[in-house]
């Protein structure tokens, strides 16, 4: 049984000119101990798809799906109380902008201990000990002292580690990482990716990696879904995708990588689409 199984997910937002489909009929699944990468340009519906699964989109969004199962349980119309028990405990998400996602009015220690209080029912001493353990696990220096810091007192990389610690605090079965290395320097990016893969292997989590970076895909994923304008263009295991991409859009993404440049000027996805080969069909 798949850990998460989604069929024909559609997400629409109302605009002045009518309803806009941000996600258009996307289907996917992820198993335990598997890393699924969802890749595509900004605006391709990657994050919106997962925010819909997590129940974190505005109430004005129109979300439909033929199937949305987590461990065989239908989560499409969960009551708010049941969803709150699920989200953050069995299913967790690392957001794209950690500093913006953390509450600036509370210390990071208070915020991670709140997760442990709500979902695990831990007492004060137990929460603090677990928070220190988690901060040590994600590589934060002086973890006991770090608990007393506010988000603005920490670097972007440190805030990202706090977000990871919060996400794994309750040993979730599924972890969704939304562009976890965006806006971080190259050295910190590598550290964060290595940390995520280490935690995923040690805890046996299913991991969904949302990214536009094909290098991250090659380094982390077992399977890959390529999205464009809210639609799934292609799905394949990572080796097949890089060696023999079937969809023109996937080939466009790969041809835009610096290592695949064949001329003086780097190709872009727009160049490829302008050639007439890309017709927008999904596979």
Automatic annotation (TrEMBL):
Organism of derivation: Rhizobium oryzicola
Name this polypeptide is given: ABC transporter ATP-binding protein
Superkingdom of the organism of origin: Bacteria
Pfam families in UniProt: ABC_tran, oligo_HPY
Keyword Flavoprotein listed: no
Gene3D superfamilies: P-loop containing nucleotide triphosphate hydrolases
UniProt GO molecular function: ATP binding
Membrane topology recorded in Swiss-Prot or TrEMBL: Peripheral membrane protein
InterPro entries xref list: AAA+_ATPase (IPR003593), ABC_Ni/Peptide_Import (IPR050388), ABC_transporter-like_ATP-bd (IPR003439), ABC_transporter-like_CS (IPR017871), Oligopep_ABC_C (IPR013563), P-loop_NTPase (IPR027417)
Subcellular location: Cell inner membrane
SMART domains: AAA (SM00382)
SUPFAM superfamilies the UniProt entry points to: P-loop containing nucleoside triphosphate hydrolases (SSF52540)
Keyword vocabulary terms for this entry: ATP-binding, Cell membrane, Membrane, Nucleotide-binding, Transport
């Amino acid at each position: 049984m798949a850990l998460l199984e989604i069929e024909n997910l559609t997400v629409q937002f109302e605009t002045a000119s009518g309803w806009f489909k941000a996600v258009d009929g996307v289907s996917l699944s992820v198993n335990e101990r598997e890393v699924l990468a969802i890749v595509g340009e900004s605006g391709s519906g990657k994050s919106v798809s997962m925010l819909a699964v997590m129940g974190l989109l505005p109430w004005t969004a129109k979300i439909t799906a033929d199937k949305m199962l987590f461990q065989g349980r239908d989560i499409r119309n969960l009551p708010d109380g049941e969803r709150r028990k699920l989200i953050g405990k069995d299913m967790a998400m690392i957001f794209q902008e950690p500093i913006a996602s953390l509450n600036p009015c509370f210390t990071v220690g208070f915020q991670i201990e709140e997760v442990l209080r709500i979902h695990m029912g831990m007492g004060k001493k137990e929460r603090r000990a677990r928070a220190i353990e988690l901060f040590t696990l994600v590589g934060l220096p002086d973890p006991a002292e770090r608990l007393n810091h506010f988000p603005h007192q920490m670097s972007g990389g440190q805030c990202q580690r706090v977000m990871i610690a919060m996400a794994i605090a309750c040993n979730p079965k599924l972890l969704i990482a939304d562009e976890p290395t965006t806006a971080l320097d190259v050295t910190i990016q590598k550290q964060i990716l290595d940390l995520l893969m280490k935690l995923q292997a040690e805890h046996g989590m299913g991991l969904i990696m949302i990214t536009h970076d094909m290098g991250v895909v090659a380094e982390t994923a077992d399977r890959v879904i390529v999205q464009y304008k809210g639609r799934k263009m292609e799905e394949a295991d990572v080796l097949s995708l890089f060696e023999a991409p079937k969809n023109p859009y996937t080939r466009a993404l790969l041809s835009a990588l610096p290592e695949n440049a064949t001329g003086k000027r780097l190709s872009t996805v727009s160049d490829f689409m302008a050639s007439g080969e890309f017709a927008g069909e999904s596979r």
